[in-house]
Design brief:
Blueprint: E1 3-9, E2 15-19, H1 24-33, E3 37-38, E4 41-44, H2 50-61, E5 64-68, E6 74-78, E7 85-86, H3 88-91, H4 101-108, E8 110-114, H5 127-135, E9 139-143, E10 146-150, E11 158-160, E12 162-163, E13 166-167, H6 169-179, E14 185-189, H7 195-206, E15 210-212, E16 218-222, E17 227-228, E18 231-233, H8 238-250, E19 254-258, H9 266-275, E20 277-281, E21 285-290, E22 298-300, H10 312-319, E23 325-329, H11 339-345, E24 349-353, E25 356-360, E26 369-371, H12 375-387, E27 391-395, H13 407-413, E28 417-424
Parallel strand pairs: 2-19, 3-17, 4-18, 7-8, 11-14, 22-23, 26-27
Antiparallel strand pairs: 1-27, 1-28, 4-6, 5-6, 8-10, 9-10, 12-13, 14-16, 15-16, 19-21, 20-21, 23-25, 24-25
Helix pairs in contact: 1-2, 1-7, 4-6, 5-6, 6-7, 8-10, 8-12, 10-12
Length: 426
């Protein structure tokens, strides 16, 4: 079967302007939260990526009427509340489908959600989601690969949502969405502090919820009887922004990024600055360029406000061209190194030991046929292809289309020689 792939002729300096789209990781739980709302919800800056389309398909089956508009806005209205079953055929496509668990349980008193799928980046258990639902008063059991939760009434509770690798973004979101309609006060300790969690809480508050403390490890939710629809704009995608910052640096180019929030990327920008990448805020945009010499660094991924795990693969690609040895340690998903073997095919010198990779800088990368293994690894290979001498062919680009909207078109718009073709074979 013919499959899409990217073909990149590297070595071109990128120059021009790129508009960063809305955050995929914020849009997904906010779209799921519309299950809680009476009346219409209009969301602006919703990226048309594969994960969002998959969730829209799931929401449609759950009774939500969805109208896509040309300007990347979406109108959502719940028309039918009978179905409480998030089926495996859709949920298997992406892990974020788990975020319908909380709102279904809170609004319809029942949820049946298949165990989620997604990228192969290591173990990501859903025990924190189940713990939160149980503490709020639900009966939860696993039945033939499905999470089945029931509760005639949810009641506020205090819950600790810390896991072996820190807090859970999706787990915090699920707890938030279930607790907003629970009776009484709920407290989430060790809540995820990521901007996407803050965006979800802000959306819920605009719909009539009473949430405080978002952006801190302690979130307090006062339950309300109902939520109304609203009009809301999704925050910019900080991971897309970081990816394009590296695209500018790795090609020794200069890009102006519109719709970019630097306050969501402070730890990442600190590491870029240490490498020799210049990030300058202007009135309504951000300009990114780099020094000719890239310095080696040490970097460790951490929960927000630390270095994002979703930018680890892309930053490692840049460090492949630094003059010296860098050390990259992954503290969120210790197995998230599937890109290492593919970058090595392009001439990178990478030595993995447990959750750490030593990156020995080389003078250049060389184009080669490579295989994308997950969403962010795909982006790393695109970046490597942009910098490499010769032609790079990236198979399985359906991974990158899960989280980047028209990345090939955006890159062509700033000078990259990249084509999306469809006669590749896995």
């Amino acid at each position: 079967m013919a499959l899409p792939y990217f073909q990149i002729n590297g070595g071109t300096r990128l120059r021009g302007s790129v508009r960063i789209g809305g955050s995929k990781n914020a849009a997904l739980p906010i779209m799921a939260a519309t299950l809680l709302c009476e009346g219409e919800v209009i969301l602006h800056d919703v990226p048309r990526v594969a994960d969002v389309k998959s969730l829209a398909e799931l929401l449609t089956k759950l009774g939500v009427n969805i109208e896509w508009r040309p300007d990347n806005s979406v109108r959502l209205v719940v028309r039918d509340e009978m179905n409480c079953d998030a089926e495996y055929d859709i949920v298997r496509k992406m892990r974020a489908s788990i975020c319908v668990l909380g709102p279904l349980l809170a609004k319809r008193q029942k949820a049946k959600v298949a165990m989620p799928g997604g990228c192969a980046i290591g173990d990501r258990p859903i025990d924190l989601h189940i713990r939160a639902m149980k503490l709020l008063g639900a009966d939860v059991e696993l039945v033939s690969g499905d999470i089945v939760a029931k509760a005639k009434k949810l009641r506020g509770a205090e819950m600790f949502l810390g896991g072996p690798y820190g807090s859970s973004v999706l787990g915090t979101g699920n707890a938030l969405m279930a607790a907003v309609l629970a009776e009484g006060t709920s407290v989430i300790e060790m809540a995820a502090c990521e901007p996407e969690v803050v965006d979800l809480a802000n959306f819920l508050n605009q719909c009539g919820a009473s949430i405080s403390g978002q952006g801190t490890p302690r979130i307090i939710i006062e339950g309300v009887k109902e939520l109304k629809g609203c009009e809301y704009r999704i925050i910019p995608d900080r991971i897309e922004a970081g990816t394009f910052m590296i695209a500018a640096a790795i090609t020794n180019g200069e890009l102006e990024l519109e719709n970019c929030r630097l306050d969501h990327l402070m730890a990442f920008i600190d590491r870029l600055s240490a490498v020799g990448v210049h990030v300058e805020r202007k009135d309504k945009s951000v300009t990114v360029s780099s020094s000719r010499r890239l310095e080696p660094i040490e970097v460790t991924t951490q929960p927000f406000p630390g270095m994002p795990t979703d930018l680890q693969a892309q930053l490692m690609t840049l460090l492949c061209l630094a003059e010296g040895n860098s050390i990259v340690t992954e503290k969120i998903f210790p197995d998230r190194f599937l890109h290492v073997a593919e970058l090595s095919r392009m001439g990178a010198r990478l030595h993995k030991s447990g959750p750490t990779v030593i990156v020995q800088g080389v003078k250049r990368l060389v184009g080669a046929p490579v295989m994308a293994s997950d969403l962010r690894a795909s982006a790393a290979l695109v970046l490597a292809g942009l910098a490499a001498r010769g032609t790079t062919r990236i198979n399985r680009v359906y991974h990158i289309e899960r989280g980047y909207e028209r990345i090939d078109e955006k890159l062509r718009g700033v000078g990259a020689e990249i084509e999306r073709l469809e006669d590749g074979i896995e």
